[in-house]
Each structure stands twice: as structure tokens, then as C-alpha cells.
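User:
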Amino acid sequence: MTAKTSKAPKTQITKRKFLMGAGVAAVGAATSGGAIAQDKTNWDVIVVGGGNAGLPTAIFAAQRGAKVLVIEAAGQVGGTLFLSSGQMSAAGTKLQKSKGIEDKPQYHYDDIMRISKHTADPVIVKLATENAAPVFDWLMDNGFTPRPEHPLTGTTHEPYSRARYAWGAEGGRSILKVLNAQLAPQVAAGRVKVLTQTEVTELVQKKDGTVTGVVAKDKDGKVVRYNSHYVALTCGGYTFNPAMFQQIEGAKTYTQATYPFSMGAGITLGVKAGGYVRGGEYHTPIFGAVLASDELPSPMRAMARHFPPERAPWEIFVNVRGQRFLREDIPSHDAYEQALRVQPEERCWVVFDDEIYKNAPVLVRGGFAGPWTPEDTAEAFKSGTEMFYKADTIADLAKKAGLDAKNLSDTVADYNRGQASGKDALGREHMPRPIVKAPFYAVQLQSWNLTSYGGLAVDGELRVVRMDGKPVPNLYAAGELIGTGATMGQSLCGGMAVTPALAFGRLLGNQILKFG
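Assistant: Predicted structure:
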């Protein structure tokens, strides 16, 4: 395989800039000054993080005869697969062929570049799309069962040109079952050792920067140095670390709906070793969270059904200035996400009147945030629950919601004129009712995030690279740690978080890392 250099990012976070910021806090207490025990095993590869990318790395490396140590900070392996919906996308799979769907990696690559508006890293996307089908087929050959109606072109993200989007009945856990079943015999045979509740605190390097192992601390505080020929950092992103999230992506993390161990430890380790962070500028929020509180980051209370093909809009969306900022019936997830991305605090309000409330399809629902019913919505408005506002006039509604009263009144009046004439200022066509009948309602919606867009820069062989493009010897990275900005650019592409992680883990263990 020829090592290719990815395109230079617009925003780069170097070692000095990063370590002067909040990110350094992600790695635990320093181990210097204390007693460090020495593990006597010479490992072929140490895998830091046992999730989407780490488990395939360990499994395939062990199947080739390598001696593998997996170090996991949590109490069990699996990582974000415990919470993930496990959405995957792959072209040219056995599943597609069985259903007469003609597809190939080039079509998949073209779709990602189109959806991302050519902001995704072409080297990483090419690597991901060319290796997606083999790992998807491997999962199916070993017991993974997709939902019967899959593959699809898309549901919660921009659609693909061909049906290649699939996941299992139990989401990420459907994938984890296969990975655990494949890992078990390697552990039993002594080819893989798994340490849980253990945190890697340092990468061991020679003077020339070559990585030769790690230093790790277990739950009892014991510190051990482990030697290896390779280290693969596969320990996820930083979505549960608000300070690092803001440092890298320039945006707040308003919710913490992600994996509690996604603290960015791998980012800190990689940067200290000489790597750098890229891709944070591609931060793309998800639309429609109803937060439980304005104490940030907040749990999610519910979600708004905002996607027009699923539920045509009756209401209007306004920003903090009380002004509409998108055509509400535009049939594009990306249009919603990009419009929200540039709003102050990535926040908006959905505004409607009593006639719309009584006649429109259900707006606020449960889902990722947990159960939520129309009765819950009614009680929230009645009790004045945070994020749910009700008033007898538009001006009073604006005051309660913290919006500009004149702007909101003008916005509603303008919308009503467009609704009456059939000529909306933003081009909206679906306008079943005006907003005129008191009481009036508003629900505050907030962005939310599931993945880290920034990540360690890697080349076409998944080697962690320095700013000059030269690799840090013997150090590799895969999974969310390399950033979804690399695999999706400034967009949300279905299956392009989980699948590249699995594919790159397989690629590392099965091909890139050389043993023997």
C-alpha cells in the first residue's frame, strides 16, 4: 500500500497550542515521580481502547498470530457501541447483491464527497469506502443480521444514491455481539489480553520519537510500563469533554448524550507524541434537541420531529433574534443542520398557535432522549416547564422565551401574509394554517452532537503524522479518534462513523501492521 498524504486542513491544533488549552486535562494524573512496574511481555501491538476500531484491530492481528494487549479505560470493552444506533454504510456488499442492488465503492465515495460538499478528506474517504464492504460482509458471515428492510438509501441523514445504509435490530450492540464472539477465542488462546479499568497515561518514545510502548494506570493506582512494536490509538473522541470540545470545534457541547469515556485521552496522547489535531472546523450540529435545563451541558428531555418528508411542518422556526432562518419544508437534513450551525448558540424556537397545536401531527417526541408523549407536552406547557412557553399574545410569548418581541411579531405577521397569498418569503410551500389563534406556543430547540469532528491527523496507512506530514514511527490511530471531519467533512453522512472505525480496525490488524 502506498502511503498517501491527506490534504492540509484549514484549522490545525499543534502540540503547544493544544497543551496550553483545556485538552491536556483529558489524561489522568501524571505518573512521573512514582514507582513504575515493568511488564515483561514484548507485545506485537498495544491497542488503546476496545471499541469500534480497537476490537477489530485486536481480532484480526491475533488471527495472524500477533500478541495483542488491549487497554480499556471502561469496565468492559465495547465503547460507544453500547449507545450507538450502529448505522453502517458499505458498497458492493453481499446483502446488496442478494437484493439485486448494483453498487460499488466509487459510487459510495462520490456520494460522500457530494454530501460533504467536498470537505471530507479524499484519502481517508477513499480508504473507508474501499474497505467498508469486506468488514460488513465479515460481520454478516459471523452472525450479524441487519433489519429486514435494509439496506436503505437513508433516513436520518442525507440520502445516498443507492441503498447501502443498514444496521441491526439492537443497534451498536448487534455489532458488539459479533466482535465479542470473535474476540473470545483469541483471549482463550492467549493471543489477546484485555485490561479494563486501566488508563494509558503516557506513550513511551525513543529520542527520535519512535513509539515503543505505553505507561498505564489501573483502578488501584498501579502504574505499569508495557513494551510493544506498535501502538494503535483507538480510544474514541472527546464529546464528553466540554472544554476540549470547545477548544477543538469552537462550539459548546450543549448536551452530554454520548459515551462517558469519550474524554479525548487519545487526542492528548497523540498530540504529546508529536501529532496534531485537524477537522474541528467542520463541526456540524444535529437539529432538534429539547434540553432538560439551561444548565449546560444538559440532559436531553425530548426531540422535535423536524424532517419534512417524515412530518411536513405546520410551525415556523425562529432564531434568538425572533427571525426565520430557513425554509421549514426543505427536504434536506443537511439544510437544517447547516442553517442551525450559523445561528447564535446553535439554538432556535419552533413557534405555533392553538389551531396548529390541536391539529398538526405530533411535534415533540421521545427517541434518543427517552420516552415522551403528547401528554408530556401538554403538561410541560401547563406547568411552564423550561423550554416550553405559552402566552396569550406573540409579544408575551417572545418575552417568556427570551426573544425580540418586535421581530417575532413582524416575523409571524410576514409568515401569515405569505400563507394567505401562497407566496412565502423563503419559498416555503407547505403552509396549512396561519399563526393567529391564541394561545401561542414556543418550544426551545438546541443542537446536539454524537461525534467528534476534530481528530488526530493520519495518512493513508493510518499512521499518526506530524505537521510536516512525516509519521510518528510505530504509532497508528483509527476510529472516532481521527475525527469524523475526515470521514464526513462538514456534514452528517449515514454510517460514516461506525463503518470506517470497523474497516480501519480490520485494515490495521489484517494488513497494515506487520508481524513476525
